[in-house]
Design a protein that fits this description.
Neuraminidase, mainly beta, five-stranded mixed beta sheet, globular, four-stranded antiparallel beta sheet
């Protein structure tokens, strides 16, 4: 009798252990599922508010870029701004200008042309801060030192397609290339790929991003687009499909996901959640999403709303869970700029952003070069 009672008690204790163990497995399974879920950032496209730059900025430095006969800048044509340890590099489609950190003009780098060391049209560029080298993407890759000397050049893509984006990250040179007009049994498509290059500017590895099929092939883009960015020890990649009216993709979907690039593979990092996924009741995209990137604290986006009209900036604070949707850009309450501003990430550090503004005085006989503002985001 006593033995039977003890056995029942032991059986109950064993059942409790099994039950607790099962609960543990369920908790871990739920936790693993939650951890593996793709973070979804809501975008309220009906919201139009003002976000002051001071709300997200830790500090801002202003650099007045010197105007000389050789250093004239068209603010509407600025393609990219880079920072080395001692210099500011400003690039338009047809020239590269080097300034000291106080804004003094130093020199131009390279020339437009068809010859050795010359670029036809600059599509993007990046800097190797460790070795003071500049890499320029055009219809080829060109490498200069910051004294303007040609170091190397090389055609990269087998089909000689222009370089879409280029970045020097963790001692590696990465480029993005789009091969348009390729064909297979399904039809005509665009092949988008990221290449890794060695010191001799030769391809050593690649990662296919996407093959997009079209009924017609023509391409348009926006100067604000960024593709390969580096932040928080992670390489981020956002690749959108922005088309002209003559280019009709086989699938009309919104590319709303930001990826990380690891070991030549793409992994979803987060996605933006737009109303109806950015597609109207007729199956047409009304959201044209140009850019998505993140810093250690914020998620940023730049897009066009075809229904409401106009360009919008979006900022999401991951620390507070608050989103801000703004037509035209941010409000600079630090420097009291009277128009909305568009901020862009530094492609080698997404916790740093920049923007520019041209300040005109009543006694100015000619328009000065813009003032460059470099900001550091809050963490």
């Amino acid at each position: 009798m006593i033995f039977d009672l003890l056995q029942i008690i032991l059986d109950i204790q064993d059942m409790k252990k099994v039950f607790i163990l099962l609960l543990g497995f369920i908790f871990l399974a739920c936790r693993e599922t939650k951890m593996n879920e793709l973070a979804e950032i809501p975008v309220d496209i009906d919201q139009n508010m003002s976000l002051s730059i001071s709300a997200i900025t830790e500090e801002i430095k202003a650099i007045e870029l010197e105007l000389t006969d050789e250093s004239m800048i068209n603010p509407d044509r600025i393609l990219r701004i880079l920072l080395s340890d001692n210099h500011v590099i400003v690039a338009e489609r047809d020239k590269i200008l080097l300034f000291n950190m106080d804004g003094t003009f130093v020199r131009s780098i390279g020339n437009r042309g068809q010859g050795p060391g010359e670029y036809v049209t600059i599509t993007n560029l990046t800097v190797d801060r460790k070795n003071n080298r500049l890499f320029v993407g055009s219809n080829k890759i060109i490498s200069y030192d910051l004294n303007g000397n040609l170091l190397k050049e090389s055609p990269v893509d087998p089909d000689n397609m222009p370089v879409k984006d280029i970045n020097y990250i963790n001692d590696e040179l990465l480029i993005m290339v789009e091969q348009v007009g390729k064909k297979d049994s399904k039809g005509s498509f665009q092949h988008s790929v990221v290449y890794k290059l060695n010191e001799d500017l030769q391809i050593i590895d690649s990662c296919t991003i996407r093959d997009t099929y079209f009924e017609q092939t023509a391409k348009s883009a926006h100067i604000f687009q960024n593709f390969l960015l580096f932040g928080n020890d992670i390489i981020f990649l956002y690749y959108s499909d922005i088309y002209s009216n003559r280019q009709v993709p086989s699938e009309n979907v919104l590319r709303d996901t930001l990826y990380t690039l690891k070991n030549n593979h793409l992994f979803p990092e987060l996605k933006l959640k737009f109303k109806n996924d950015g597609v109207d009741g007729y199956g047409n995209k009304f959201i044209q999403l140009y850019n998505v990137y993140r810093s250690s604290r914020y998620v940023f986006a730049f897009y066009r709303n075809d229904v409401k009209g106009g360009f919008y900036h979006f900022c999401y604070d991951m620390k507070t869970g608050t989103g801000f949707n703004m037509q035209g850009g941010y409000t600079d309450d630090i420097n009291n700029i009277d128009k909305r501003i568009s901020i862009r990430p530094l492609n080698t550090d997404t916790d740093i952003f920049y923007y520019w503004h041209t300040h005109m005085n009543m006694d100015d006989l000619e328009e000065p070069n813009p003032t460059l503002y470099i900001g550091k985001l809050k963490k």
